[in-house]
Design a protein that fits this description.
8% strand; HTH_MarR-typ; 153 residues; DNA-binding transcription factor activity; Putative MarR family transcriptional regulator; WH_DNA-bd_sf; single chain; Arc Repressor Mutant, subunit A
């Protein structure tokens, strides 16, 4: 008996939407990870931490990185260790809380981030940015915010 694929019309819309999010996240993350690793010896998890650091004008408490990224706190700690060993970030004691540390990009970290970000954007342009218009991007951003706001639910 021949096997056939289930079509979108046969799948409930909520299931198809969920599968689409998982598929897109997996495929795009793998694509970016390959490009960043090849061009900069930088795994996508390291880039994610650097992206949050580059987006902040001030040093970022390590706990905030754990809450902001898609990584666990222990993963963030390992990534920050690796970035620090490459001279890409510094850890400094927090002036507000003696029990915590704040993380910031070094000048070398900023340089690598800029180059890696250009690689990421070039990698995603033909398969994401060029395919979606501003309304699509805003809709995806709205969906992401809604889902993330209820991540504990």
């Amino acid at each position: 008996m021949a096997k056939r694929k289930l079509t979108q019309a046969e799948m409930p819309v909520a299931d198809h939407a969920f599968y689409g999010l998982v598929w897109a996240g997996t495929v795009l993350t793998e694509r970016v990870d390959r490009a960043l690793s090849k061009a900069h010896d930088l795994p996508v998890s390291w880039f994610e931490v650097m992206l949050w650091l580059a987006s902040s004008p001030d040093p970022v408490p390590a706990s905030v990185l754990g809450n902001s990224t898609m990584l666990s706190r222990s993963q963030v700690s390992r990534v920050v260790d690796a970035l620090q060993s490459r001279g890409l970030v510094t850890r400094t004691p927090s002036a507000r809380d003696a029990r915590s540390v704040e993380v910031s990009l070094t000048p070398e970290g900023h340089q690598l981030f800029e180059a890696a970000d250009a690689t990421r954007r070039a990698c995603l342009t033909p398969v994401f940015t060029d395919l979606l218009d501003q309304q699509d991007l805003e809709a995806l951003s709205t969906v992401w915010r809604k889902l993330k706001a209820n991540k504990e639910g």
